[in-house]
Amino acid sequence: MGCDGGTIPKRHELVKGPKKVEKVDKDAELVAQWNYCTLSQEILRRPIVACELGRLYNKDAVIEFLLDKSAEKALGKAASHIKSIKNVTELKLSDNPAWEGDKESTKGDKHDDLQRARFICPVVGLEMNGRHRFCFLRCCGCVFSERALKEIKAEVCHTCGTAFQEDDIIVLNGTKEDVEVLRRRMEERRLRAKVGKKTKKPKAAECVSKPGVSEESTKTSKVKTGKPEDSSLDSREKKTNSAPRSAVNGSSSGKAGKPPCGAPKRSIADSDESETYKSIFTTHSSAKRSKEESAHWVTHTSYCF
Question: Residue 137 and residue 131: Cα distance in Å, rounded?
Fold first, then answer.
């Protein structure tokens, strides 16, 4: 069949050899990892989150995935380890001042520099384009280059000052070996959390099953601490009891003690003091005016005249 009209077939058209292995372009792979969401394959936009394996996601895409876990989604396997929103950490990224975005390449007549990244390391200034290893802290979400953490060794975050451990450092878009290490850490962390929950449940059950012990403990605590109302009442009773005692002690010793609060006040007019001393006070007869001397009930003001 064929070979009509003087066509001469070549060897590779007749003999089928082994297929060549397609090589993935490294630049294209890096762009896909660092600029696009792993779940929705859309461009990364804030808020950006990262899982415990170091993959980047849009927070909206993760929430949609958790609400609708249908088997139709082919990319659901990439986020199968995300069981709740607590399994991801929101990243605090530092913007690259040299990145202009797609402002000048709207017409398509300008070369897009794939090495230029949107975010940089706030300590060293390296661009987060995949050429350099980057990591984030699970406790606070701050993102740094691995070089910054190695050169400036500290147990506190360089940006916010939060204390962290080696277990909190997660490499972003790491190699297969890095992912295996992170997966092992993730499983150990979740196992620890499950064991902690199981130990808390029997303690609560014991407290419910032994109400007598709890009542006795509450009674003893009340006796030790005491309510504030009871203490205030006791203090008031002590004050009222101590007041008459102090008055009796003062009269017996001959010293002029302070009169009790409920005792009637003694007027100076009934005292045995001299008339000149009594005339100082308003209760004296000389200070009182007669009806003729007192003013009329109508008030005379300046604006009435």
Answer: 20
User: What is residue 93's DSSP assignment?
Assistant: P
Contact 90, 67 (CB under 8 A): no
- Write out pLDDT tens, residues 137-150: 999 999 999 999 88
Asked if residues 19 and 25 have their Cβ atoms less than 8 Å apart, the reply is no
Please state whether the predicted TM-score (pTM) of the whole model is above 0.90: no
Check: CB of residue 146 under 8 Å from CB of residue 171: yes
- Whether the pLDDT of residue 224 is over 50: the answer is no
Residues 150, 152: Cα–Cα separation, whole Å = 6
- Quick check: 128 and 148 in contact, CB under 8 A? no
Question: Partners of 56 in the beta sheet?
Answer: 50
Label the pairing between strands 48-50 and 119-120: unpaired
Give the C-alpha separation, 208 to 202, whole Å: 10
Q: Hunting for tokens 């995300």 — which residue is that? A: 82
DSSP state letters, 187-202? HHHHHHHHHHHHHHHH
Q: Which neighbouring-strand residues pair with 144?
A: 135
The span from the CA of 232 to the CA of 234, in Å, is 5
* Distance, CA of 117 to CA of 33 (rounded, Å): 12
Summarised one tens digit per residue, pLDDT across range 73-129 is 556 677 888 989 999 999 999 999 888 766 555 565 665 666 678 899 999 999 998
**Integer Cα distance of 116 and 245 in angstroms:** 90
Closest CA to 192 of 165, 169, 167, 164: 167
Kindly report the backbone phi and psi dihedral angles of residue 109, in degrees, each rounded to the nearest multiple of 5, phi listed first. Answer: -105, 20
d(CA 21, CA 18): 9
